[in-house]
Amino acid sequence: MTFLARAFVYILVKSQGLRLFFRTPPGNGVLVITSRVIATCFALISFAAALIVGILAENPLQTILLRALFTMIVCYTIGLVIGMIAQSTVQKHIEQHKLEFPIPGEEVDLAAIKRNPETTNGESASAASA
């Protein structure tokens, strides 16, 4: 076995595996889908669409790839902004739903949540009540 193959086997078997490279963001339920995932999907779809349109227009390969890369970069930034807006909107709705319909038996400091409505998750509110 070569050195690279042994290193790869070590990463997969003996260490924590690929979890070191692909960590899921903290969140509850819906919030695991971050704005980066939305931006990446948007960028890849735009890249594929630019490739198809370039091929159908019979452009040279270099032109097709440059335009597709440019489109991917622009659409990634647009998707990142859209993803951040969507993520904050979903978070605000979840916090509002938790205030309106509390789970029986779960102690949450409602006063702390009302004072600081910009909390990104319920961790700071539950930490304040403890």
Folded structure, characterized:
The chain is mostly helical and 130 residues long. 66% of the residues lie in helices and 0% in strands. The chain contains 5 helices and no strands. The longest helix has 40 residues, at 61-100. It is flat.
Describe what is shown at a glance.
With 130 residues, the protein is mostly helical. It is built from five helices and no strands.
Radius of gyration: 22 Å
| Number of strand segments | 0
Helical stretch tally:
5
| Proportion in helices | 55-70%
Largest sheet: none
Mean pLDDT: 76
Question: What are the secondary-structure elements, in order, as H or E?
Answer: HHHHH
Tell me the strand percentage band: under 5%
**Helix and strand composition category:** mainly alpha
- Uncertain residue ranges: 124-130
Shape: flat
Taking the alpha carbons of the first and last residues, their distance comes to 53 Å
Please give the structural blueprint.
Blueprint: H1 3-13, H2 35-56, H3 61-100, H4 110-115, H5 123-129
Helix pairs in contact: 2-3
Output the keywords:
130 residues, mainly alpha, 5 helices, flat, disordered C terminus
